[in-house]
Amino acid sequence: MQLLSLLLLHAAAASTVAGAVDVQLVLSGTVPASQRPVALRTATILARQIEQRCNATVAPPPPTARRPESRSQDAALVKIELALDQSLGTEAYAIRDGTNGSSSVAIVGGDVRGLLFGAGKFLRSSRFDGPRSAPFTPGEWRGTGAPHLPGSFRGHYFAVHYDNFYQSAPESEVATYMEDIALWGVNTIIVGTPGPGTFAPGHSTVLPGAPQIAVLVNRTRSLLQLAVEIGLSPALIMVPNQGFDNGTHTHPATPSGHSPFPYTPFPDPLRVRGNLGALTCPFKGHDYLLDIRRKELEVYSDIGIDWIVFWPYDEGGCGCEDDWPWGGKGFPRISSKMATMGRTICVYAITSDTAIR
After folding, report:
1. What is the pTM for the complete model shown?
2. Is residue 90 within 8 Å of residue 111, measured between CB atoms?
């Protein structure tokens, strides 16, 4: 009986080896040194996607761009070359037959982001036949592709409040999720700016300097740095008229408005406004609000923010004669001032849902 078990075990092991497909990733010399870290991250994403779905063993790119040598005479070696060709255009990609034999394929990006999107297309055209004991079959699709609007704003909001996944999950899990959605064409990761509106147990907001703010600053910085490493644009979202509570706002059900420059309430019979944080009159509290946003932006200035989204209507605006109607008066005025300040601090292009540039 023991001999039979050993024979069966040997047969199963032999079957696994025979069915295995080793994949060698190669980074082309067309990838300049400055863009190599992001391209290597794409190679890591490719390797993870393949190895977690089947029994293929993926070898990372060699230290230098060179033609790889087969590591096993018994394994069917699939070679995937990652390259750049600026003539393809922004965020575009091409998948071609490779130069290392019939089992090789080249994924070429017009830029490093196009290379990432091309990797996603290649993975979706490939086969992962069931359990981990099944082989990897590289996709046969060949051609060029690009997002419908190359360079357009295709963002995903990572909300870091209410103890949700983006805030509470291990960073490795959030990183995997970010990589996965990037393969489908997401090009921007958006996080909220900790400060006014940051939540604490039993309160709908916190006071300036509260420890919860520092914790969320570290989390959002990590998420945005991760986005940059993957090759995505970092973005911030903020409510431009949201100030800090003055300490009398102690329960989520309590109407907001207890800032140093309280807003003028407006009709809200259906109670559709979020009333998160302490809304501030942007006219009277102009300098107060700009100072808050300046300090928030400076926290991320070393990362390099590509976009800022100004969020106008969950909380609504001030109903005073200087700000109302909010969507046509107070909101564009204060958002424009914050956008100008943001360009100075963050350097990069800034926009909002009102198309302020």
Report:
1. 0.85
2. yes
Cis amide prior to 196 (ω within 30 degrees): no
Measured in whole angstroms, how far is the alpha carbon of residue 296 from the centre of its chain? 20
Q: What is the pLDDT of residues 316-344, one digit of tens each?
A: 888 899 999 988 999 999 999 999 999 88
Q: How many CA atoms lie within 13 A of 229 on its CB side?
A: 15
Which CATH number does the domain 12-145 belong to among 3.30.300.20, 2.60.120.10, 3.20.110.10, 3.30.379.10? 3.30.379.10
Phi first, then psi: give them for residue 223, nearest 5 degrees: -65, -40
Q: How far apart are CA 214 and CA 219, in angstroms?
A: 9
Per residue in 108-154, pLDDT tens? 999 999 999 999 999 999 998 765 556 788 999 999 999 999 989 99
Identify the CA nearest to 276 among candidates 319, 298, 305, 243.
243
Domain limits, the chain: 12-145, 155-346
What number of H helices and E strands is found in the chain?
8, 14
Q: Distances in Å between the alpha carbon of 245 and those of 122, 220, 296, 312?
A: 50, 22, 16, 19
Residue 60 Cα distances to 93, 107, 163, 268, angstroms: 21, 15, 36, 58
CA-to-CA distance for 143 and 93, rounded, in angstroms? 9
